[in-house]
Amino acid sequence: MASPNSDEWRAICDKFTNAQNLTDVESRKDPENDPFRSKYKARELLREIYCSLKSFEAADGEEDAGGESGEQRPPEQPLDGQTEDAFDRGLSGDSPAGMRAAKLGAVEYYLGVNHVDTEELSAGQEHLMNSIKLLDRCRVSAENVSLYIHVRNQLGILWAGRDETETAQGYLETAESIYQRYMKEDGRPPTDMTEYFSTEENLLTHQERTKRFELAYTHTMYYLAQVYKNLGQKERAATYCHSTLQRQLQLNQFSPMEWALNAATLSQYYITKGRFMEGRHCLAAATVISGLAGEVPSEAAAQESETESERREQLRQKRAEIARCWIKYCLNLLQDAKKLLEDNIGELDSDRQDELRSARRQEEEEEEKGRKSALLFGSEDTFDSIASVEEKVMCLLPLNFTEARGVFLVGQNYVAQAKEYYQMDGYVTDHIEILQDHSALFKVLAFFEEDLERRCKMHKRRVDMLEPICNDLNAQYYLLIRRQLMFELAETYNEMMDEKLSLANRQADMQSLDSHTIKKINHLCSASTKYFQMFLDSLCSPQGKPPEHLEEEVLGPALVAHFRVARLHSKLISSSPSVQLENLNRSLENYKYVVQYCEAHPEATTAVETELELSKDMVGLLPLKINRLKSRMAANN
């Protein structure tokens, strides 16, 4: 092998530097009609380096270390024994023969990456496997451990791209094991692969070596997070994703907006698991880190270049996406609290409320312990900023209206932020989804409100935001969304009707209701019935014929709609016997539909067990009531 200071070796180092520059810098300038021009040039330089190394090896009388056409070997499996062998077998990493093998392996690695980057995956795989074969001759050491990890990372990416997830898992878990054992048994800042082809004056500092090595392992963790996600191992994927994000901050190797979005996305996993402390921390960190990505554009942005304008537009969109994640946080926190506090008829259980309130102190102490043991994001510069964002919203379940309102107001603030970007003009679906979340926030807040009049006003806010959009949407292009809105509006009017009936029952006997109250109750009944019927009509054929078989996605809602329509008709108040009779007959007709459909389609019973049982009761009772009314009408005539 040529000496480090020889002209031959300096020529190799220069070629390697040029190849790196072509790959990392010049390739970005390549024209669209020749996108890989620079990478092809880099490949030729790498091949020349490989030939030079082989000639040095031959001159030194070494045995063949395996060429570019080396044989394939089976994909790695995640077995610890293989990692053990890598540490214990073969030549020392810093022996002349070991270093020659490592350098050849590094060139094979760079050739493999080059071929993958130019979409020649089979050739890329062959070079990467050659690199592993060469490394089989060496023991893992400070001189080559970085290369061991990089080549396995790259093979993990390659196989994951082919949807061979378990094969990718094997390579990446081996890389992880190599890192962990090296840090346990050695731990020195290892040689970076680029230093194989650097002159002595250009070697890296220990600090830079450590940073590059830790970054390689961070990539291992990032890719493993994706692999575990694709394998359905969600908890494990979340753990690796969280650790990856933390390491990126520590190494100061991250794109602020990409990092923030990943943290916000991770928060959604924690939220669905009821881990609101972790979810809040992810979102607070996302909010703070996204602020590092630049200012939101102002009117002056119109004079900027198109590229800069596009970049700022992307920032606005991504911040709006983070705001939407915050909305989900607030909504899920309120909904989880509601599930814990509601009784068997969906009302606030005061006894349960007292139990949870007495347990709150212990819960707060456990939260503090959890905060200390949790994997926190940020550095000393960002800890305080993240904590200040967290303080704006609780992560414990709210137990009363005051606490629930605090969460609601935070969610409503993020609704406003999200709507600034996702406007109706251009983002119809997104805008409506945000409005539906806003409506859901009002709905769950109403659960905590004891004053029935104020509850009704909250439901009225829901109607006011959804009704105009539902009526204006094109039925042909937005059928599914209109169905969602119809059903929610029907349910909302139904809830308002129930609140008004409860108020009336408290204030007076139903027989002595004033005309204004009767008119209001009937209006709410009719409005709810109208939207339920609109929903049912949307399921009919163009000729208006109801479907004989309800599709699975609309089965439950359709049967519930018939049940609600039946109940609503029975709640309408009228002094006219003929109108009463008409309402009762319509009520019976809809109850019968639920029963008859479930008899014809037994699989539907699980979707509406409660409604079916009540419908059967009413099908038995209503004919008696109808006959009594008919008898009274006949007697009066």
List the uncertain runs.
Answer: 62-80, 296-304
Q: What would the principal axes of the Cα set say about the shape?
A: elongated
Number of domains: 4
The level-1 CATH class of the largest domain? Mainly Alpha
Number of helices: 22
Stated plainly, the CATH topology of the largest domain is called Serine Threonine Protein Phosphatase 5, Tetratricopeptide repeat
Beta-strand content bin: under 5%
H and E order: HHHHHHHHHHHHHHHHHHHHHH
Coiled coil: 298-351
Main location: cytoplasm
Family: Belongs to the KIF-binding protein family.
Organism: Kryptolebias marmoratus
Structure notes:
The chain contains 22 helices and no strands. Helix content is 72%, strand content 0%. It has helices at 7-24, 37-59, 80-88, 96-117, 121-135, 145-161, 165-185, 206-230, 234-251, 256-272, 276-290, 306-341, 350-373, 380-390, 401-421, 428-448, 452-472, 479-507, 515-537, 552-571, 577-600, 609-636. It folds into 4 domains: 7-253, Serine Threonine Protein Phosphatase 5, Tetratricopeptide repeat (Alpha Horseshoe); 274-293 and 308-444, no CATH class; 451-542; 565-637, no CATH class. Mean pLDDT is 89; it is low at 62-80 and 296-304. The protein is mainly alpha-helical.
